[in-house]
């Protein structure tokens, strides 16, 4: 008969996995952690300027949310952050 793993260990493992994922998709800069609160998926024909305008963002804010984005080479299906917060830690 197979041994059943404790529910507590399963919950702990899942929480650690979720925390690891969250930390992977956030940025840390000088004591601050950036959390993206809303993202959008790039569709055919989308450009950064139009996405920023659609969500009421200036281009500077859009770029601060997406520092590694190459607006000349967006990929269909790529996710871009359109709302986020910096959290002190």
List keywords for this structure.
extended; single chain; 36% helix; alpha+beta; 89 residues; 3 helices; 26% strand; three-stranded antiparallel β-sheet; Membrane-bound Lytic Murein Transglycosylase D, Chain A
Quick overview of this protein structure:
By secondary structure, the chain is an alpha+beta fold. The chain contains three helices and three strands, in the order H-E-E-H-H-E. The chain has a domain of 62 residues: LysM domain (Membrane-bound Lytic Murein Transglycosylase D, Chain A).
Description:
With about 90 residues, the chain is α+β, with helices and mostly antiparallel strands. The chain is about 35% helix and about 25% strand. The chain has three helices and three strands, in the order αββααβ. Strands 1-2-3 form a three-stranded antiparallel sheet. The protein is extended, with a radius of gyration of 18 Å. The N and C termini lie far apart (about 45 Å). This is LysM domain-containing protein. Keywords: Chitin-binding, Virulence. GO terms for molecular function: chitin binding.
Describe the secondary structure blueprint for this structure.
Elements: H1 7-24, E1 27-29, E2 32-41, H2 48-54, H3 59-65, E3 79-88
Antiparallel strand pairs: 1-2, 2-3
């Amino acid at each position: 008969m197979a041994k059943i793993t404790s529910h507590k260990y399963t919950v702990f493992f899942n929480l650690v996995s979720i925390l690891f994922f969250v930390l992977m998709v956030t940025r840390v800069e000088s004591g601050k952690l950036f959390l993206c609160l809303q993202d959008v998926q790039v569709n055919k024909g989308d450009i950064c300027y139009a996405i920023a305008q659609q969500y009421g963002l200036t281009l500077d804010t859009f770029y601060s949310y997406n520092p590694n984005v190459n607006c000349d080479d967006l990929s269909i299906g790529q996710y871009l952050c359109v709302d986020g917060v910096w959290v002190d830690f």
